[in-house]
Amino acid sequence: MGRDPPSSSDGSLSWHCIFHAPRMITNDTRHASGVLARRSREHRPAWSGPPWRALHRNVGIARICIGGPMEDKPSHGAEPLKLRDVTDAMRRMSAAIETGHRCFRAITDGRGTALAVLAPDGHFVSVNHGAARLLGYTGAELIGRSLADMADDGDRAWIVDCLAASISCTLRSFNVVLHGRDNREASVLLHFQPVMDGRGNCSAVLVIFEEPVVLQQGLVDALMRSEADFRRLYTHLLTGQEHERKRLSSELHDGLGQALTLVKLMVEDALGRMRHGSAEQAESLLETTLLRIRETIGEVRHICNDLRPRLLDDLGLVPALEALCKQTQQCTGNLLVVFDCRIVENEVPDNLKADIFRIAQEAINNIIKHALATEINIVLRRAAKDILLTIQDNGIGFDDLSGSPDGPTFSGLGLLGMRERVESNGGSFALTSGEGSGTLVSAAWRV
Ligand SMILES: Nc1ncnc2c1ncn2[C@@H]1O[C@H](COP(=O)(O)OP(=O)(O)OP(=O)(O)O)[C@@H](O)[C@H]1O
Ligand SMILES: [Mg+2]
Where do the TM regions start and end (predicted)? Predict the structure, then answer.
């Protein structure tokens, strides 16, 4: 079963906004079913409303002219349609489109919107160039024709249904296939907005014909490429997350779990010995247990530190980076690590601190693992409105494939993770490396 077409009512946006409404057909707006309020085509009353003299657009902004003498009274007894009623309908339509299609992409119709006015029974009363062109007719040729008659068999019901429901004064949108001159097919999203007169009667229906966006091949290729890149990155990230979970799980299981089991056994043993009067043995066992507990506390700290470096919270980013550099130099022995910090702690926004630390950490890990370097230079500084972090080594470098059309082909996750961290916070990431010429990792965030 289908859903009701999206509809909405009041709004106060300026009416010309609708001519900048982006164009998109959503499947959501297509129904599968509905009550067919079919009217007999043969018995349709002739249009007797106010004379719509012209409906046209000019430089992307449509103008509606309601002409003709006011004594041209409609024969059905409704008040003559006023410009105010039409602009009011436009406003409602505009607001409804704006609020009803939040996912619209910002693609506007450079040729102006295809627009028509229908009589309440669905006959064209006025048509602008865009709508006429869409159907392959001139505006004059369309006047008096029935919109429903131009629709696919399956879609006709929707048009008739919406016309019948016009009294509700709400915007209705749905996809239809229309057949124009020489059976030319046009797949469009129709927006129906009833125009109400002062007495609350529907005196006309404004219709916008929204064509699907036709993307140029180049753009399609670019979109598909970026989607493929995104998928690849996303898969890598999921894999990374999965690896991290496994690592944590095995650290908890093999490290913490084993240690706690051992402590439990030792305490049980000590208890048993105490019960059997071997207090001395119990005492020495408990002392060993105490040592184990201390070690376990250290392990928990280690795991927590891996998740979020404590130094960062305790001391701040700059001291944490200093400590990282010092520790790296001490652990490796043959690597000189220079940290050149030209920024004060409170110049760095809090939300960037963990990222900056992790990027430096991963870059240093990579250097230790892959670079065979003897020197690392880390710079954290401010340049105009940016915060810059660079990590340069003098190692063997590698073939940087990040710019190749196939994207990076590494099996590791470190570089991808760094890029993702930086870009997810609105920054830009760059990697420069070449065999024999060392590697430079740089990240910049606008603050
Ligand atoms: N500073 C560097 N010097 C030389 N090669 C590097 C350097 N940094 C990265 N690489 C190369 O880039 C590859 C990708 O690095 P990346 O950090 O993504 O993965 P990894 O370190 O291999 O694994 P992981 O970080 O997932 O544990 C590395 O395998 C290495 O070949
Ligand atoms: Mg790595």
Answer: none
Is 159 exposed, middle or buried (CB count within 10 Å of its CB: 0-12, 13-18, 19+)? buried
Distance 411 CA to ligand 1 centre (A): 9
Over residues 299-328, the pLDDT tens digits come to 888 777 777 777 788 889 999 999 999 989
| Same domain? 241 vs 358 | no
What spacing in Å lies between the alpha carbon of 412 and ligand 2's midpoint? Answer: 6
Secondary structure (DSSP) of 398-433? ----TTSTT----S-SHHHHHHHHHHHTT-EEEEEE
| Same domain assignment for residues 158 and 14 | yes
Assign residue 277 a region: left if phi > 0, alpha if psi is -120 to 50, beta otherwise? left
Give percent above pLDDT 70 in the chain. 70
pLDDT, tens only, 118-175 = 888 899 988 888 888 889 998 889 999 999 999 988 888 888 888 888 767 677 888 8
User: Which residues place a Cβ less than 5 A from the ion ligand 2?
Assistant: 366, 412, 414
Same domain membership, residue 359 and residue 240: no
